[in-house]
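Form 7-S
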Amino acid sequence: MKFSKKFLAILLVLIAVVGITLYFEKRMIEEKRFMKKIEEKVANFIPYIVNDCEIIMRQQNLSYALCTRVGDKTVLKTKSLDCGVQIEKVRKCKDLRIVTNFKPGDYLGFQLDLTKFDIPFKEYYTCLYTDMPLYVTKYPPKYGEITPGIYYPSFACSPKFKKGDYHHWALSGYVLNKKGEFVVARVYVFDGNLPSDFDFKNNLDKGIIIFELKGVVE
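Output:
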């Protein structure tokens, strides 16, 4: 049986359309399954885990810490993944070299100690920008009311702080399935003489970037 060239061309197009449709349907099913797992992780998340990353940062005298989870343990995001919270005698971790690569579904915790940076103001405001694709978790009560969800990119600012007082920035969430390079955290400081209702987001030139960390979702 012979088929015309026109018929074969139409058949090939139909096969291609069906193939593409099945491919995207499969991707959608996989994405729904992935998101369901992330939502389950967020629903079962214990807020003290956010504090764990801060504890690691302060125990190891770091200016910032990027953390993840190995089983039921919070650890510094290094190749060795062996620098965790130390309850008894604190020893310097052998590996403090931060690795900024994550895979979808990984937990990401971030902490930054503002006292470790040279802030040229006696009083200051600070703002944090991130476009890291995270499903944000619960936070302990001391962080205020934070509802779990997807908020990237985001830009948040603090009330007025006094230089030298301990204040810190924190992020906590599970990495979403969005591959590429992102800004985990970019931290600005602004002169404390500015009014409290100043539009920081649209006047970034008035601020100073004191820290920036980029990460990759593989």
